[in-house]
Amino acid sequence: MQDLKAKFESWKRKRITRRSALFALGYSLVLSTTMFSCRTPENNTQKQAASSTSDTTNTASTSTSGSSNKVVRIVRSKQLTALAVLEKQGNLDKKLESLGYKVEWPEFAAGPQQLEALNANGLDIASTAESPPVFAQAAGTDLVYLAVNSTDGQAVSLLVPVNSSIKSVKDLKGKKVAFQKASIGHYLLLRALEKEGLKLTDITSVYLPPPDASAAFSQGKVDAWFIWEPFVTRNEQNKIGRVLIDGSNGLRDTNNFYTTSRKFYQENPEVIKVFLDELQKAQVWSKQHPKEIAELLAPVTQLDIATLEKMHTKYDFALVPITDKIITKQQEVADKWYSLKLIPKKVNVRDGFLSPEEYAKITPQEVLAKQ
Questions:
Q1: Strand partners for 244
Q2: 134 close to 334: Cβ distance less than 8 angstroms
Q3: d(Cα 138, Cα 223) in Å, to the nearest integer?
Q4: Is the CB of residue 168 less than 8 Å from the CB of residue 300?
Q5: CA–CA distance from 269 to each of 260, 261, 266 (Å)?
Q6: Do 239 and 270 sit in the same domain of this protein?
Q7: Where are the beta strands (DSSP E) in the chain?
């Protein structure tokens, strides 16, 4: 009997030991999974938007360490835009600080990288052309179109090397053309080729973000490059490239958009209204002060003041109302990309637009009056 009792006690100890070991193993797995999950958004953002210069782990609904301020991350513009003016003048920072928010200005290579970060919770307000939001919606991003900027067609150009034999868009057939995939350069190249009876398959598309495309273009590794300011003017001034065509004269038929995530819109309507009000003021100031904006943004664009004053004429500096015409055009863009099999599914762009009543609450009255 004593022997049987000893065996039972031994069996019980082994069972408890095994259960403890299994619990420890399970806990370790949960802990490691949790830690991995916590790191994933940040790592994704770093991979998707490697050129971002700020910490992307904070959101507008969380506090920064050592501060009670909530963080709002608005994309930094390095172009001659009212958004760049907004950052440099600091008026928005002051307005939002009084509401308990701190503004950060992360930098991204182009629109697609912005919207990847928006989806990964690494950015709150983006500024892009028409195509990046379509590609983002096709990828499942629940975004909201907040406002529409002027077309500014002259500010986007197709560059060729200064001594290139290419004289027209037709001469691009069989050539290597660089552009950021899903960008305004991609869209305008498509339209320019179609006007000449050509297709994207008639050229060799070289998908490169602006910094890499700039290097490839200057080294003669591509035959042309569709890009925006200030890259265009820098290449002209350095006698590296010349403009073959730009987005004016009806080539560009779309607008630029300010977008956010659905979550940010729902949780921060007051921030969005203040942002759009201050952006409208910056638009008006920029249009009325060509010399002052040149002086303000010379360090940002790396161009001299006289050149920036000339560039000023390429921009309209205006927010425009979101109308059915704007939405219909955006749907045409989405349908075009789907017909070319460049997005995986048909997109209903209206899913990203608000109701007229919702826009009336956040859009500056001066902009609404243009309807």
A1: none
A2: yes
A3: 31
A4: no
A5: 11, 12, 6
A6: no
A7: 70-73, 101-104, 125-128, 143-149, 156-161, 176-179, 204-207, 224-228, 241-246, 256-261, 319-320
- Give the span between the Cα atoms of 329 and 335, in whole angstroms: 10
DSSP 234-253: HHHHTTSEEEEEESTTTT--
Q: List the structure tokens of 293.
A: 């904006």
DSSP 77: P
Q: Are residues 161 and 125 in the same domain?
A: no
Cβ pair 92, 86 in contact under 8 A: yes
Question: Helices 290-301 and 82-89, interaxial angle, to 10°?
Answer: 80
CB atoms under 10 Å from CB of 269, counted, come to 13
φ, ψ for residue 217, nearest 5 deg: -65, -45
pLDDT in tens, 225-275: 999 999 999 999 999 999 999 999 999 999 999 999 999 999 999 999 999
Integer Cα distance of 318 and 282 in angstroms: 9
Between strands 204-207 and 156-161, the pairing is: unpaired
Residues 261 and 124 in one domain: yes
Residue numbers of the domain that contains 143: 70-151+255-368
How far apart are alpha carbons 149 and 168 in whole angstroms? 30
Two tokens at 81? 């835009």
Nearest to 314, CA basis, from 181, 203, 155: 155
Last residue of a domain, one of 246, 275, 305: 246
Q: Read off the pLDDT band of 40 (50, 70, 90).
A: very low
pLDDT above 70 coverage of the chain, percent: 82
